[in-house]
Amino acid sequence: MKAARHHGSLPLQVEDISDPALRPGSVVVRVLRALIPSSVGDVLSSRYSTPDDPAQNLLILPPMPHTAGVDCIGVVEAVAADVSGLSIGDQVYCDPFLCSNHPAAPWDACLIGYMGFSPASRRLLQQWPDGPYAQKAVYPAQCVTPVGDARQIDPAILARLGYLGTCYGALIRSGIRPGQTLIINGATGILGVGAVMIALGMGIAKIVATGRKRDVLERLRNLNPKRVIPVALEGTLGDADRVADAAGGADVVLDCMVGLAKDAGPTMAAIRALRRPGGVAVLVGGVMTDLPLPYTDLAWAGVTVGVGSSRSAGTLSDPTGSLWFPRAHAADLLLMIGSGALDLDALSPEVYTLDKINDALEYSSSRRGGFNHVVVAPNDR
């Protein structure tokens, strides 16, 4: 089969390699569409790591060479004898998140074929080094969820399920309920746009969408003008008041800032708009600086701030300590999509063939999300 191989630097090399071998507890899938996040180029070129101190690397890469990739939509072609509930021909979402889950396990979380989050991740990445930028891929059965009725949806759209699941998991952890008010900070990025769509599907009454891209904010408003209230940020001290006035007292803030943002101002403006006792702020984005939290204000208002991606974020954290989201949340989203409760028609994926994988990486890195995302179709010509 053909696969996009990573030899330690870019560009990726499209090569002929052997088909992945079925192993106990696994399935082999034919890849239909695989997501190419805007950060892939940075990860594969190790721009997030510190080679001078490997023990402190922010990200750990699989052993070289390996087939790159993150999550994908595929069709099951082979099922190990010890796996039940999956059948040849099933269309499935392949979730790359994997970690040891027994009580004595180290923190060894990784994304199969992509990266690890601690030195202990190396062992899992050695066992599962290859991702889905190939015609076929092998995954642990625990990582595979049948798409069910959502198979009617373009697999290029479903390939965005990892981002959608991150937002859905954060909203579930926040405890938000239908009829409440939600502020989504960074609503114009790939995380934020998905969060607005999911919040609409969950019955959130008022969704205050903040961001700097006015054209994307207008498209978000058009999804449901009665419930989506856009607020264009200007980078001034007045941002916090305008967000607070639009919300009229928010129950939850979901911070979706992406792109390794170094400006904490928009995040703080959103948190300060939590003017209802018991408000919750969940941080799932990529702000790479400290937050100057107003301790007294938050304490007196009973506001909870949690990091949606942290293993130790108390009740806001997934009980498995996931950096990603629980497997059941992918199934929830697929049920919502299949039933029509979650409408993704506004998304517009760009599809590349495998021989154009490096063009796809370059294009994706220049497109920081929103309604657009990039996928590769390894079996298309």
Quick tags:
11 helices, 26% helix, 7-stranded mixed beta sheet, Quinone Oxidoreductase, Chain A, domain 1, 381 residues, Rossmann fold, 19 strands, alpha/beta, 2 domains, 6-stranded parallel beta sheet, globular
Explain this structure.
- It is a single chain.
- The chain is of the alpha/beta class.
- The protein has 2 domains: 190 residues, Medium-chain alcohol dehydrogenases, catalytic domain (Quinone Oxidoreductase, Chain A, domain 1, Alpha-Beta Complex), CATH 3.90.180.10; 154 residues, NAD(P)-binding Rossmann-like Domain (Rossmann fold, 3-Layer(aba) Sandwich), CATH 3.40.50.
- The chain is 26% helix and 23% strand.
- It has 11 helices and 19 strands.
- The strands form 4 sheets. Strands 3, 5, 6, 10, 11, 18 and 19 form a 7-stranded mixed beta sheet that branches.
- The longest helix has 14 residues.
- About 4% of the residues have low confidence.
Concise summary:
With 381 residues, the protein is of the alpha/beta class. Helices cover 26% and strands 23% of the residues.
User: Could you give the distance between the termini?
Assistant: 14 Å
Helix content: 25-40%
- What is the arithmetic mean of pLDDT? 86
Order of helices and strands: EEEHEEEEEEHEEHHEHEHEHEHEHEHEHE
Q: What best-fitting shape do the alpha-carbon axes yield?
A: globular
**Which second-level CATH architecture of the largest domain applies?**
Alpha-Beta Complex
